User: Which sequence fits this backbone?
């Protein structure tokens, strides 16, 4: 019997494992298989990566998003490089405990991005540093799709940004912890949602996996060199799993398990999470109409960012977990992040909204 746990709004990491992922893990179980990725399940993962991201794409399963990011950035940075341009909200900048700096020896070079998106002209901020031996060389751009604040680069926007970086000799990494949510919003493939970037941290955990992400080399011109380097880098970043088949099975299920309509699991899960976030926002709109809360970002993927009185947030938090994002415009307010996952139900949104209305002293 599965316990009937509360659906919270803190993170898509709070969610359960999708049954089709669990079934894939069970299918990978039993008997012995060669370790460290030399197994038949990882061979199927390799095939799924090529089918999903192009015939030259190479994928490397890893354990978590921080590991995928640091491994990707290290692989993309030359020995004498080390500067990584990223937005002020970037997970690599704020939420990885300094791992890019400590483990990777990298320096994050911050750009303002109020809605999470960087625009091409901003790359000029670090252009003068190129060729100056006194400066960390800004040779890699790391962008996040969908962004940390729930916005999505359009295909035109991300393509223009990637092209602008390439024109300046800068390689591009996509933190794709939520690339599935972006692709679902845009109605494009996972590959197209990356806009021609070089390397992707392909997220599985927030999209219904138990644990598992992959570093994917997207740029065919880098497939040989990075394909050669990455096994060593992954080992050194402690992201090489011995029983890799269980991670590979999860990611393969996300890419290949289709429903009757032919939709892969990644798309079904992301679409659900996105739709539910839009629904949650609609449910909370009466509070905005009464001037009690204020939405602070567009809801383009699976998150709702909303500023509310601290007292209201604290009251609702008695029943539901969610994160404060940053202080609000006044001391009495706080901006919070409400995150929906593949398993967040409409009923859970209704119950959350009812709790918010009750806490605000109004009827739904
Ligand atoms: C944008 C982004 N990147 C990467 C990650 C992955 O982090 P972790 O190392 O916790 O798997 C997260 C998780 O919250 C994230 O939001």
Assistant:
């Amino acid at each position: 019997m599965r316990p009937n746990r509360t659906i919270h709004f803190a993170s898509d990491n709070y969610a359960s494992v999708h049954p089709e992922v669990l079934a894939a893990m069970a299918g990978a179980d039993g008997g012995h298989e060669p370790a460290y990725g030399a197994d038949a399940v990882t061979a199927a993962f390799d095939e799924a990566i090529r089918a999903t991201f192009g015939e030259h794409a190479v994928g490397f399963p890893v354990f978590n998003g921080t590991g995928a990011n640091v491994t990707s950035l290290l692989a993309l940075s030359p020995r004498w490089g080390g500067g990584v341009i990223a937005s002020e909200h970037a997970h690599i900048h704020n939420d990885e405990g300094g791992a890019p700096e400590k483990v990777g020896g990298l320096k994050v070079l911050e750009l303002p991005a109020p809605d999470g998106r960087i625009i091409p002209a901003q790359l000029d901020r670090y252009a003068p540093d190129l060729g100056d031996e006194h400066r960390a060389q800004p040779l890699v751009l790391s962008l996040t799709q969908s962004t940390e604040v729930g916005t999505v680069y359009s295909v035109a926007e991300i393509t223009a940004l990637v092209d602008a970086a390439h024109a300046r000799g800068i390689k591009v990494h996509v933190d794709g912890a939520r690339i599935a949510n972006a692709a679902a919003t845009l109605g494009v493939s996972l590959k197209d949602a990356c806009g021609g970037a070089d390397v992707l941290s392909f997220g599985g955990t927030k999209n219904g996996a138990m644990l598992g992400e992959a570093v994917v080399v997207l740029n065919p011109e880098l497939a040989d060199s990075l394909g050669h380097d990455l096994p060593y880098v992954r080992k050194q970043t402690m992201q090489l799993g011995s029983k890799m088949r269980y991670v590979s099975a999860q990611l393969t299920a996300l890419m290949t398990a289709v429903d009757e309509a032919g939709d892969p699991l990644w798309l079904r899960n992301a679409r659900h999470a996105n739709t539910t976030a839009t629904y949650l926002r609609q449910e909370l709109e009466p509070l905005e109409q009464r001037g009690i809360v204020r939405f602070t970002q567009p809801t383009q993927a699976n998150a709702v960012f909303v500023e509310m009185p601290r007292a209201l947030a604290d009251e609702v938090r008695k029943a539901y977990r969610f994160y404060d994002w940053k202080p609000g415009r006044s001391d009495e307010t706080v901006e919070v992040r409400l995150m929906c996952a593949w398993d967040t139900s409409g009923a859970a949104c209704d119950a959350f909204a009812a709790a918010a209305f009750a806490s605000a002293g109004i009827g739904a």
Remarks:
- The first strand starts at residue 58 and ends at 62.
- The chain has two domains: 18-256, 265-360.
- The mean pLDDT is 97.
- The domain at 18-256 is CATH 3.40.640.10 (Aspartate Aminotransferase; domain 2).
